[in-house]
Amino acid sequence: MNPLHWSFRARFLAGFAACIGLIGYAIWTQLYGGLEPCNLCIFQRVAFALLGLVFLVGGLHAPRGAAGRRWYGLGAFLAAAIGIGIAGRHVWVQSLPADLVPSCGPPLGFLQESAGMLGMIKKVLTGSGSCGTIDWTFLGLAMPAWSLICFIVLAAWALHAGFAGRKVS
User: Fold this and answer.
1) Which residues are CB-neighbours of 105 under 8 A, at least 6 positions away?
2) Could you tell me if 41 and 135 are in contact, meaning their C-beta atoms sit under 8 angstroms apart?
3) Domain presence at residue 169
4) Which letter, b or e, does each residue of 80-96 get, where b requires 16 or more Cβ atoms within 10 Å of its Cβ?
5) Are 18 and 120 in contact (CB under 8 A)?
6) Which domain holds residue 27?
């Protein structure tokens, strides 16, 4: 069965399952693979969780009207766009020469206590030295590059699910 012809509900629940799988793999690599996530990695996990939440709510609600489906499609696209921005920034930090990588920052908990939520977000998005380290690759791409690809695919999936014609069965 062609996934492009699935119902809105099936498409959105598949998007949710993909997000859960990606977060699960990230946690598995942390617990069993020995990879400690940097601050940008943690923000990417949060973006996948937000995207997964939109997919889940949209999949469970599955509005009958085109307007509701489009709103869910746009909501999921915006969540994916946030992830694209974070993962893109991470890929950029990893592509910098060693002497241009920003200095390492403190852990998220300390940043939140000392700088508040907005200060923490600003500091994390400016990158840290640990975010420039490449510890894992698959087919020549580091994990942030794979996250970027997944966010792009899920953004396209959300738009397709939200704006494609209704399945007639």
Assistant:
1) 39, 111, 123, 124, 128, 129, 130
2) no
3) no
4) bbbbbebbbbbbebbee
5) no
6) 3-163
Q: List the pLDDT tens digit at each of the 169 positions of the chain.
A: 777 778 889 999 999 999 999 999 998 988 888 888 888 888 899 999 999 999 999 999 988 898 999 999 999 999 999 999 999 998 988 888 777 776 556 666 666 677 777 776 666 555 445 777 788 889 999 999 999 999 999 999 999 999 987 654 4
pTM: predicted TM-score of the whole model, two decimal places: 0.82
Beta bridge partners of 137: 142
We report the CATH number of the domain holding residue 20 as 1.20.1550.10
Instruction: For the beta carbon of residue 158, count every other beta carbon within 10 angstroms.
Output: 27
Residue 168 domain-assigned (yes or no): no
Inside any domain, residue 86: yes
The token duo for 142 is 């580091």
C-alpha–C-alpha distance, residues 78 and 109, integer Å: 26
46 inside domain? yes
Which amino acid would we find at residue 71?
W
- Our count of domains for the chain comes to 1
Residue 139 is given by DSSP the state T
